[in-house]
């Protein structure tokens, strides 16, 4: 049997086999490679994205707290239960800023991912006042979201009187944050009677309502497009007060 005609075919098969081996080696290297990403806290840190992706959905709880719905009590419960139930609760800072830009959302996802990786507990929970953030937009699986809601009238009244009872003059605020003006009225009834902007809802304006905490940071989540709905809520407040 003559080997001459077979040599070109053998060379082709050998080259293909070599390419397949190189591809397998590259895939194995990529699977075990730790991704190095710049840290927003300063300097480079080793960031194992695969570790976070494997654990985030089943072992990470994110309580993105709707304000004035009893969220502080639930945070206390999480803190009390963490040792007994084998998980760790972490409080995220900068709760004043609820609406985040795309880059700020990426920073939030990165911070949570880093803390998950650094935690010695297999299960972790977080809390912060922040609108719903889609982790999959940044290459991560979604955490288990948790929240509390409240009757909108009760929530509005609670926020109105909370702002007067706890002014928090020394509270830390992020750069660029402007403190609201001192309140004009001491009672919700008076505020509604004079249709003060603090308790009046208008189409096309942004209000820190409940919907963005379940919808997201987009404009259609944050702005009021149906004045009649919000005026109906205000009418309920008048009837109850």
Automatic annotation (TrEMBL):
User: Where does this one sit in the cell?
Assistant: Golgi apparatus membrane
User: Which key words are in the record?
Assistant: Glycoprotein, Golgi apparatus, Membrane, Signal-anchor, Transferase, Transmembrane, Transmembrane helix
- Tell me where it mainly resides: Golgi
One MF annotation (Gene Ontology) recorded for this entry: sulfotransferase activity
The record's annotation in Pfam families points to: Sulfotransfer_2 (PF03567)
Q: Which InterPro entries match?
A: Heparan_SO4_2-O-STrfase, P-loop_NTPase, Sulfotransferase
Family, according to the entry, reads as follows: Belongs to the sulfotransferase 3 family.
SUPFAM superfamilies noted in UniProt: P-loop containing nucleoside triphosphate hydrolases (SSF52540)
Spans through the membrane? 12-31
**Identification of the protein by name:** Uncharacterized protein
The source's superkingdom equals Eukaryota
Gene Ontology CC entries for this record: Golgi membrane
Q: Which Gene3D superfamilies match?
A: P-loop containing nucleotide triphosphate hydrolases
The way this protein sits in the membrane is described as: Single-pass type II membrane protein
């Amino acid at each position: 049997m003559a080997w001459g005609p077979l040599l070109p075919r053998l060379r082709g098969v050998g080259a293909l086999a070599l390419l397949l081996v190189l591809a397998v080696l590259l895939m194995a290297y990529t699977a075990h490679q730790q991704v190095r990403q710049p840290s927003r806290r300063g300097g480079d840190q080793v960031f194992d994205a695969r570790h976070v992706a494997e654990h985030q959905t089943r072992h990470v709880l994110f309580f993105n707290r709707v304000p004035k719905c009893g969220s502080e009590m639930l945070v206390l419960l999480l803190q009390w239960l963490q040792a007994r139930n084998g998980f760790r609760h972490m409080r995220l800072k900068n709760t004043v800023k609820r609406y985040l830009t795309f880059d700020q959302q990426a920073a939030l996802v990165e911070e949570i991912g880093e803390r998950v990786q650094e935690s010695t507990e297999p299960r972790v929970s977080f809390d912060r006042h922040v609108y719903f953030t889609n982790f999959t937009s940044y290459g991560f699986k979604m955490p288990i979201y948790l929240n509390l809601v409240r009757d909108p009238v009760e929530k509005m009244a609670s926020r109105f009187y909370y702002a007067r009872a706890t002014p928090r003059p020394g509270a830390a605020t992020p750069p660029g944050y402007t403190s609201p003006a001192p309140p004009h009225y001491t009672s919700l009834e008076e505020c509604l009677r004079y249709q003060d902007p603090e308790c009046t809802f208008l189409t096309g304006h942004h209000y820190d309502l409940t919907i963005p905490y379940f919808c997201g940071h987009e404009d259609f989540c944050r702005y009021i497009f149906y004045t009649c709905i919000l005026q109906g809520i205000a009418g309920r407040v008048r009837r109850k007060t």
